[in-house]
Amino acid sequence: MTIIHKPLWDAPAASIRQAGKTVFGAASAIVRTMGNRRAARRLSEMPDYLLTDLGIRRDDVSEALHADWHQDPTYRLAMAAARRRRGLAD
């Protein structure tokens, strides 16, 4: 005897819901990464003095944009700016 009885017909619906959540999560991550890649491309069009104000250099932007397509370039730029603020990079 079990304390909680789970109907058998609920299991397929739960797995379908979980698969839908996974697909939706993956699709939203791809869309977000592509939007961030577009924003990083706009950063590459900015003059050097504005990039310096943001704490990044032009080669940081270039490296971020030449990373794999599934990596978020804005994350890489944020990490480069943080390292520069802490004085770990020149």
TrEMBL record:
Pfam families: YjiS-like. InterPro entries: YjiS-like. It comes from Aurantimonas endophytica. Residues 29-61 form the YjiS-like domain. This is Uncharacterized protein YjiS (DUF1127 family). It comes from the Bacteria.
